Amino acid sequence: MKKFLIAPSILSADFARLGEDTAKVLEAGGDVVHFDVMDNHYVPNLTIGPLVCQSLHNYLQKAGINAPIDVHLMVKPVDRLIPDFAAAGASYISFHPEASEHLDRTISLIREHGCKAGLVFNPATSLSYLDYVMDKLDVILLMSVNPGFGGQSFIPGTLDKLRQVRKLIDDSGYDIRLEIDGGVNAENIGEIAAAGADMFVAGSAIFNQPDYRTVIDHMRSELAK
Ligand code: DX5
Ligand code: ZN
User: Fold this and answer.
1) Cα 199 to averaged position of ligand 1 atoms, centre (Å)
2) Does ligand 1 have an atom closer than 6 angstroms to the CB of 152?
3) Any binding-site annotation on 34?
4) Is 89 marked as binding a ligand?
5) Which ligand is in closest contact with the Cα of 122?
6) How much is the pLDDT for 89?
7) How many angstroms separate the alpha carbon of residue 9 from the centre of ligand 2?
8) Structurally, how many domains does the chain consist of?
9) How far is CA 186 from the centre of its chain?
10) Segment holding 118, helix H or strand E
11) Given pLDDT bands bounded at 50, 70 and 90, which one contains residue 1?
């Protein structure tokens, strides 16, 4: 099993002081910046794009912080944003298969731009999208809420889906991260890890607390059990 990665979702950060708040969560122990991009078309909410990604990337670089940026695209169409996010400092780019006309092409485009490619599954999206692309993926991201908003509750059925994907990854022998996104907190992170996840997105559970380090330390102690 790979090292566990905690990816604070900046959707719940203070957008008026995004650079500072992101630096603060990384200094408190976050490993990866989860960057949620919503277009009011694929999902019913509107967030941030490549310009903000670039500014944030520059801010972190200047502060000497090298955490990877994990761009979660909840947009349709997908492809035309990929070069922009790659140029804006993204390390990972993940997208929803329903939002792309040509799955294989989109994955290739992400990799050609030097980023790690992830495929995202909504709670009711079939895993059959994995059938012909497992060899080209760096990340499989399971949504444990319906995408569009932070602060929702973890859908328990996702645990079974995680176990299925963990087995698929292990049987395949490919080097793929299994990321979980939605309703993750210090109370449930242990059973989510036991079901097979190794990369954990958490937004409201971290940013709604006054002390980020306390929550992240609590998450890590649950992961160490
Ligand atoms: C939801 C986003 C999530 C969200 C998670 O569509 O993809 O990344 O920020 O927020 P919490 O952890 O609050 O469920
Ligand atoms: Zn997300």
Assistant:
1) 14
2) yes
3) yes
4) no
5) 1
6) 98
7) 7
8) 1
9) 17
10) strand 116-121
11) low
Pick from 12, 68, 72, 82: nearest CA to 36: 72
Catalytic residue among 36, 39, 70, 198: 36
Cα–Cα distance list, 103 to 9, 131, 210 (Å): 25, 11, 41
Which of 63, 70, 60, 55 has its CA nearest to residue 9? 70
- As a whole number, the mean pLDDT across the chain is 98
CA of residue 8 to ligand 2 center, whole Å: 9
Please tell me if the CB atom of residue 6 comes closer than 6 angstroms to any atom of ligand 1. no
CATH number of the domain bearing residue 192: 3.20.20.70
Whether 138 is a known active-site residue: answer no
Q: What average pLDDT does range 68-82 have in this prediction?
A: 98
Whether the predicted model's global pTM rises above the 0.90 cut: yes
Q: In this structure, are residues 120 and 143 in contact, taking their beta carbons and an 8 Å threshold?
A: yes
Residue-wise pLDDT tens digits, 140-192: 999 999 999 999 999 999 999 999 999 999 999 999 999 999 999 999 999 99
Give residue 84's pLDDT. 98
pLDDT the model gives residue 120: 99
Catalytic residue among 39, 138, 181, 198: 181
pLDDT the model gives residue 2: 78
Using one digit for the tens of pLDDT, what is the confidence trace for 111-144?
A: 999 999 999 999 999 999 999 999 999 999 999 9
- Is 178 within 8 Å of 162 (Cβ atoms)? yes
End-to-end Cα, the chain, rounded Å: 14
List the structure tokens of 179: 């990321």
User: Which range marks the domain in which residue 219 is found?
Assistant: 5-223
Which amino acid would we find at residue 186?
A
